[in-house]
Specification:
Helices cover about 35% and strands about 20% of the residues. The protein contains six helices and six strands, in the order βαβααβαβααββ. The N and C termini lie far apart (about 40 Å).
């Protein structure tokens, strides 16, 4: 049983990554789709009760928000994985602009998320942390981050 949390700004590739890596094995829990936190919580609770692997496909920018998923998942006996989508702001804004009409996040919203994004740390209770970046060929480059390496590096606070 596995609970996966994506951490990253809008436009960093989270949903595309889900479709490529988890579509066939994990329920996708997305507030974009569910519209409210209450519905999101109900679906998480159902996955925990049914022992169903799931992915929380959201920005999960704050440690406090991630704790709302980590603690119940661990209590239910789930392994908790984090995928941290490291992405320069200008790259996220560019991908956001290329989204289909109706799915584009207003630029101030992306910038606000970028500014408040707290990179994951081991003390939050993750069993695994992986860093995801998009390479020059628009492919996902994933590298596992070990406890021996310490906490993942912070994002550069560029505004470009």
């Amino acid at each position: 049983m596995e609970a996966v949390l994506f951490v990253g700004v809008q436009g960093s590739g989270k949903t595309t990554f889900y479709k490529e890596r988890f579509f066939d094995t994990h329920v996708r829990i997305s507030r974009d789709m569910l519209k409210t936190r209450n519905r999101q919580s109900l679906l998480v609770s159902a996955c925990l009760a049914g022992r169903q692997p799931f992915v929380v496909d959201d920005t999960n920018a704050a440690k406090s928000r991630r704790a709302e998923f980590i603690e119940p998942a661990r209590a239910a006996g789930f392994r908790v994985r984090c995928f941290f989508f490291r992405c320069a702001l200008r790259e996220a804004l560019g991908r956001n602009r290329r989204r289909p009409s109706g799915q584009v996040v207003p630029v101030p919203g992306v910038i606000a998320t970028f500014k408040r994004l707290e990179p994951p740390v081991w003390q939050e209770g993750f069993d695994e942390i992986s860093i995801v970046e998009v390479d020059a060929e628009d492919r996902f480059a994933v590298r596992d981050w070990t406890r021996e390496q310490g906490d993942p590096p912070r994002l550069e606070r560029e505004q470009g």
